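Structure ticket #2291
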Amino acid sequence: MIGPYGVEYEKYAGEIYVSKQNGKRKQGFNVAQLKPDGELRILGYTSRDEALGKTLEEGVRGILKSYGWFDHVISRMMAEADEIATCTVCGGDYHERDVNLIDYEDDVCIVCEPKFKATPPA
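Resolution: structure written out below.
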């Protein structure tokens, strides 16, 4: 996929893309988010250096965390379509591992679950 300024991007996970990797152990790269309209939104530039133990995943997560997004938001952004579950309490979409699909009649996300446990529906 060609992004802004003619840079070639490859899918990393879910709606997250990174500028094309050249296979080097030390490399800088852009991190971008695929918007619903099909355009890439550049989130930031970072680098990886395998010699120092900084992996591609750590670089991507570092950019996403710099926006102040919580882990469950990042997990949803990096989830594929078949890994998304909707909380029936708040209506939010989450990675399926962040929604309790087993213990309740409702599908309850990790944000709603503490309050849901305290006051279960009648």
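Closing remark: The chain has three helices and eight strands.
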